Amino acid sequence: MTNRSEECDFSTIDSLAKTLQLGISIPTFVLGLVLNTLALSMFCCFWKKQTKTSIYMINLALADVLLLLSLPLKLYYSVTEAPGLLCAFIESLYFVNMYGSIFIIVCITVDRYICIRHPFEGRANQSPKWAILICCLIWAIVWLCSSPMYAFHKNENLKCFHNMSEQAWSIPLIVSVEIFGFLIPLSAMVFCSVQNIFILLNQKSRGKKHEEDSGSLRVITINLVVFLVCFTPVHLGICLQCLVRQHVIEDCSLKQNISFFIQMSMIFANLNCCLDAIFYYFAVKEFCEKTSMKKVIELCPAFKPCAS
């Protein structure tokens, strides 16, 4: 997704970015794959009776696994030329799972908000049917929206995530991505998280459910911080790169800095796959607190998260 210009030399920037990319992406791939595979095993094993939360968590872990599996292809074909059609598939696979994760995280936050703000209605409506429908809709939308990727490359061999056509950086497309792919989800995240925090702090001040509220506060705060840290830089980088491609930014050193920034921001966005394990930990911990140790071992003897 970086820019190429005749008057600017990006070789030094790209070399540094590739080194850092390998240094960060390899541990991210290994750790993320282990954590998300364990999470999927736990969710499928523990939650014999699926709930909305478990459906969202399974889909989030699945999105993380698919994104992680696309990382080796991304690393290899960003330095090696590949056919345009293959590049389009790799890029669409990467972005589908990134935005799939964003929308599923928002769904989890909104669902938590409904349960906290309207506890009786939220607990009464725990059927997984709506969660399954919403997740299917999310997957369908992100895959459909990724279809223009196949028009962003010519047929000749090229390096993936580089040298996209001008269509990929058109203002209407980038504005749509920024608004629907980030700003609206971010607004929902901030609103629901802030409301949840206020409600729980109010309950805590009255001495209600002290320990449970403290745990929920940590999860909500961490959830919001992780979302901001992982996804804000990459969308800022996309916006800046659009300005470069629209010739609004002409300074060579600034172009180089933006090129480096967007490559690094995409790397740090991948860390979300590992940080999502925080949600899985608290979800399994909550399950263990509501289930006897004997029952947990009976359900899934291979995993004993409550024993430690």
Query: In angstroms, what is the radius of gyration?
Result: 21 Å
Give the low-confidence spans.
299-308
- Average of per-residue pLDDT values: 81
* Strands in their spatial order, largest beta sheet: 1-2
Order of helices and strands: HHEHHHEHHHHHH
Please count the helical segments. Answer: 11
How would you characterize the overall build of this protein?
The protein is mainly alpha-helical. It has one domain (11-298): Rhodopsin 7-helix transmembrane proteins (Rhopdopsin 7-helix transmembrane proteins), CATH 1.20.1070.10. 76% of the residues lie in helices and 1% in strands. A two-stranded antiparallel ribbon has the order 1-2. Helix 7 runs antiparallel to helix 8. The radius of gyration is 21 Å and the shape is globular. Mean pLDDT is 81; it is low at 299-308. It is found in: Cell membrane. Keywords: Cell membrane, G-protein coupled receptor, Glycoprotein, Membrane, Receptor, Transducer, Transmembrane, Transmembrane helix. The chain crosses the membrane at residues 24-47, 54-73, 93-110, 130-151, 171-194, 215-238, 258-284. GO terms for molecular function: cannabinoid receptor activity.
